[in-house]
Amino acid sequence: MVEIEINEPERAKPYIVVGIPAFNEEQTIARVILDAQKFADKVVVCDDGSTDYTAKIAKRLGADVVHHEMNIGYGASIQSLFLRAHDLQADILVTLDGDGQHTGNEIPIIITPLVNGVADIVIGSRFVDKHGTAEMPLYRQIGAKIITGLVNGSSKNGITDAQCGFRAYNRQALDNLRVLDNGMSASVEILLEASKANLKIFEVPCTCKYDISDVTTSSEHPLSHGIGVVGSIIRLVVEEKPLIVLGLPGVVFLFLGVFFGVWMLQLYVELARIVTNVALVSIAFLMMGFFMLSTGITLYALRRLSAKIRKEE
Questions:
Q1: How far apart are CA 257 and CA 263, in angstroms?
Q2: CB-based contacts of 3, cutoff 8 Å, min separation 6
Q3: Taking CA atoms, which of 158, 223, 279, 291 is between 20 and 30 Å from 69?
Q4: Angstrom distance (rounded) from CA 235 to CA 155
């Protein structure tokens, strides 16, 4: 292992685990593992149902392999890596993709804020300086900035890159974070959970390669990926603030429904007939308002119950 600069010389060196989520990465996984082993006490590969030689190559190189029987998703792999890091009693878990996009030589940079105690989570950001986006396609830059803006609007993190998978977590973060989403939006879920747990987040610049000749490209279309992540952000925000996101609009719709209902009655008195359009608008607003308000109250009650159970645990 390389020497890591630590502010307090007497502090013991942390036990570092590098976790690599991988699905059919036989062409790149060896290079990623070998780079990671230079800086890690243990390298763990989560083989997410690969149908190629990803798992065999990882085992041959001495990595600890967690195997999924079928392809579940990126988020499920991160969950498995978190659990394995707990089992290994890791002081620091570093995650980086198995497709070779991230550079293992930057691991000392991303763990230094954790070692020095200034952060609980460190994110490798492609937007901290211009070098991080040098090879990043423009459509990816736009998509990443949109998603990051939505995350910042939903939490108090104020980060620049919500989608980069090159991250590091200390033991406090591993103990407090719960990842439930199995898909790519797990990266966003972690940040929102970190905000709720008041975990300190720090960003360091990182590079990301997109033109590696041997890299296996993602099977998910960028547009569908972006839509899925945005949908997950909306879902997570609704779950976190149901009374604000659903309850308040529900009350507004109920008032509108009552308003159009009163107007319909006035028209009925004047014209001796029901104006169908006004009646339908009133019914529609009343139904939407009732549904949104009741859903918001139900989600709020479930959230409080879940928080109580988690606190007791």
A1: 10
A2: none
A3: 223
A4: 14
Tokens of 83: 């659990």
47 vs 71: CA distance, rounded Å: 9
- Asked if 163 and 144 count as a contact pair (C-beta separation under 8 A), the reply is yes
Q: Rounded CA gap, 41 and 238, in Å? A: 40
- Strands 167-170, 92-95: pairing kind: antiparallel
Closest by CA to 65, choosing from 17, 16, 15, 20, is 20
Give the tens place of pLDDT for each residue, 248-296: 999 999 999 999 999 999 998 988 888 999 999 999 999 999 999 998 8
Q: Which of 26, 4, 29 is nearest to 14 (CA)?
A: 4
Cα separation, 128 vs 82, whole angstroms: 26
- Position 5: which residue type? E
Is 100 in contact with 31 (CB distance < 8 Å)?
Answer: yes
d(C-alpha 72, C-alpha 49), whole Å: 7
Residue type, 68: H
Question: Cα separation of 186 and 44, whole Å?
Answer: 19
Please choose, from the candidates 187, 237, 173, 238, the residue with its C-alpha nearest in 3D space to the C-alpha of residue 74.
Answer: 187
**Nearest alpha carbon to residue 164 among 196, 200, 206, 227:** 206
CA–CA gap between residue 300 and residue 268 (Å, rounded): 40
* Cα separation, 279 vs 287, whole angstroms: 12
Q: In which residue are the tokens 């033109």 written?
A: 211
Residue type, 194: A
d(CA 63, CA 21): 12
- Residues 52 and 24 sit within 8 Å (Cβ to Cβ): yes
CB 79 within 8 A of CB 169: no
